[in-house]
Twin-arginine translocase TatA/TatE family subunit (Flavobacterium keumense), 133 residues
Amino acid sequence: MFGIGGGEIIFIMFVVLMLFGSDKVPEIARTLGKTMAQIKHATNDIKNEIQKGAEENGFDKQSLADLTGNITAEIDKAKENLLGNTSTLTDFSNTVTSELTQVKQGLSVEENKTEVAAVAKEEEVEGPIKRQM
């Protein structure tokens, strides 16, 4: 109960008994019981008022069940559409991957051409002074 062991409950009862005395403890227990009953009664009243308001506005349990059933059916349809198109997604993924590979290869070829051109340009410099790039 509330993560409290038996020894702790006995200690709390002992402290309450020492603080309030043996003649006040039953009165405190009665007051606590009445308060708990009032809280329970108020909670039930609120619950009943909510149910009455829902029934007056046309939201009874059956219509709510139908509404949630329709929403669940729509969610299931969306899942089927998403999961049913996995082959299309796989094809798209493969196409994108192959195109990226081609672009990478093209970039590496252009990079090599640029390096060769830079080396050739350095070799063309004549005279005693070479320029550094």
Q: What stands out?
A: The radius of gyration is 40 Å. DSSP finds four helices and no strands in the chain. Residues 22-82 form one domain. The helical segments are 6-20, 25-56, 61-84, 86-124.
